[in-house]
């Protein structure tokens, strides 16, 4: 289905964090903000497909935002969330529709998770579905490419690698995110062709950056099924020989759940990769049914905390406890800890206090094209005191 990007504005941190967490789990790439000017800027630069807008905020009038969205002919689905009385909300909905906006529904406060999920599902169901055959044809046409999101060491504020993120530039539908096409590929048996393609692009990019004197490691996500079926060591070895690149520049990310499906085979595959110098990262840690002690049987080198625990760790005590526990256990086992979904300075500060090693997220840099990422990396030649302001404004 088409790319799904969701933009949230709400002055209540708990509500905003909840909307963001539920939306991400529903397959939406999500940005949360509390600032009206920032919301409108992102509405044009990021082009969200869905907006969740609070009508009643102390410093922002949601109805004025609706009027501005109408003036600029926004095509996004708009969900209104508000504690206003029902007639006031319906009046705003009617005004939005009359102005040509796509008013998708109402979410009343206190927010109910089931109502939010139902509203997001309805938007999904309205989207045109993607078939496995669509993805096969796109692969043949070369429509898939990679964006790269930087990772930063919390202690030094220096680049610590990048994660390769697949994108699909569809000739009619525009840019499509992996949340929309990866599940289709996995269900349709396309991943075993797609994975070598992604690895090949990442290795070629590593060679290009090396030739530009930019020595940076690249992490590549691999589905559990492809990890079991493919000889990744052979694929990576061949691609690296073709490009003259050391396999040690790569990190393979596999989810916690996938790693535990067939532990014996996972251990064998990981050991072959580690023998080549490839690092192994356990992605989405904390969402599966295993423990870190169980996972330590596998020869991996880092833990990546699932972003559902990171996104509200600055305001949610339970998330703070989970993050600190994972960091402590991982360090005691000699493992690095990476946190994704770092969108604010408050989250970054909380992770630093917890002892997290590496972070990635919009606060440091959005996923970007290879050329833009190269420029971003070159910017780190300035004094360290300048880095926080620059990374917060990364493209």
What name does the CATH topology of the largest domain carry? TIM Barrel
Average pLDDT confidence is 84
- Kindly report the oligomeric state of this protein: single chain
What is the CATH domain class of the largest domain?
A: Alpha Beta
What is the gyration radius calculated from CA atoms? 21 Å
Roughly what fraction of the amino acids lie in strands? 15-25%
> What spatial form do the alpha-carbon principal axes imply?
globular
Let me know the number of strands. Answer: 14
What are the salient characteristics of this protein?
alpha/beta; Rossmann fold; disordered C terminus; TIM Barrel; globular; 21% strand; 14 strands; 395 residues; 8-stranded mixed barrel; 5-stranded parallel β-sheet
In short:
This protein is α/β, with parallel strands linked by helices.
Please describe what this structure looks like.
- The chain has 395 residues and is α/β, with parallel strands linked by helices.
- It folds into 2 domains: 5-126, Rossmann fold (3-Layer(aba) Sandwich); 132-392, EAL domain (TIM Barrel, Alpha-Beta Barrel), CATH 3.20.20.450.
- Helices cover 47% and strands 21% of the residues.
- It is built from 18 helices and 14 strands.
- It has helices spanning 13-25, 36-45, 62-71, 86-98, 113-126, 132-141, 178-188, 191-211, 224-229, 232-243, 256-259, 263-276, 292-295, 307-310, 317-332, 345-354, 370-378, 387-392, and strands spanning 5-9, 29-33, 50-54, 77-82, 102-108, 144-153, 159-170, 174-176, 218-221, 250-255, 279-285, 302-305, 336-340, 358-360.
- An 8-stranded mixed β-barrel has the order 6-7-9-10-11-12-13-14, surrounded by 5 helices. A 5-stranded parallel sheet has the order 2-1-3-4-5, sandwiched between helices.
- Helix 16 (345-354) links the parallel strand 13 and strand 14 (358-360).
- Helix 1 (13-25) packs across helix 5 (113-126) and helix 8 (191-211) runs parallel beside helix 10 (232-243).
- It is globular.
- Residues 381-395 have low confidence and may be disordered.
């Amino acid at each position: 289905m088409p790319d799904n990007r969701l933009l949230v504005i709400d002055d209540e941190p708990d509500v905003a964090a909840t909307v963001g967490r539920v939306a991400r789990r529903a397959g939406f790439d999500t940005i949360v903000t509390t600032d009206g000017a920032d919301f409108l800027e992102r509405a044009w630069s990021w082009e969200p497909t869905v907006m969740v807008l609070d009508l009643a905020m102390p410093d922002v009038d949601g109805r004025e935002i609706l009027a501005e969205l109408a003036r600029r002919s926004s095509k996004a689905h708009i969900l209104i969330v508000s504690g206003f009385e029902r007639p006031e909300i319906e009046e705003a909905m009617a005004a939005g529709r009359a102005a040509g906006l796509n008013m998708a529904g109402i979410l009343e406060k206190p927010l109910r998770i089931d109502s939010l999920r139902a509203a997001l599902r309805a938007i999904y169901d309205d989207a045109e579905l993607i078939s496995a055959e669509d993805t096969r044809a796109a692969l043949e046409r070369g429509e898939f490419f990679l964006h790269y999101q930087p990772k930063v060491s919390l202690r030094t504020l220096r680049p610590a690698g990048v994660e390769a993120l697949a994108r699909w530039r569809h000739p009619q539908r525009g840019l499509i995110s992996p949340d929309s096409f990866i599940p289709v590929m996995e269900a349709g048996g396309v991943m075993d062709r797609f994975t070598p393609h992604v690895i090949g692009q990442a290795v070629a990019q590593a060679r290009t950056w090396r030739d530009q004197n930019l020595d940076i490691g690249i992490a590549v996500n691999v589905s559990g099924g492809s990890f079991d079926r493919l000889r990744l060591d052979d694929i990576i070895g061949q691609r690296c020989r073709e490009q003259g690149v050391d396999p040690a520049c790569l990190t393979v990310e596999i989810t916690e759940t996938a790693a535990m499906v067939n532990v014996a085979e996972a251990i064998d595959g990981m050991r072959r990769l580690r023998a080549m110098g490839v690092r192994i990262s356990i992605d989405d840690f904390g969402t599966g049914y295993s423990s870190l002690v169980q996972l330590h049987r596998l020869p991996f080198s880092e833990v990546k905390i699932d972003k559902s625990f990171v996104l509200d760790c600055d305001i949610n005590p339970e998330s703070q406890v989970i993050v600190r526990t994972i960091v402590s256990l991982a360090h005691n086992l000699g493992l690095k800890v990476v946190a994704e979904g770092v969108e604010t300075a408050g989250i970054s500060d909380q992770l630093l206090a917890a002892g997290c090693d590496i972070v990635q997220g919009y606060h440091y840099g959005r996923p970007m094209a290879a050329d833009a990422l190269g420029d971003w990396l070159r910017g780190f030649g300035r004094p360290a005191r300048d880095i926080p302001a620059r990374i917060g404004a990364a493209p």
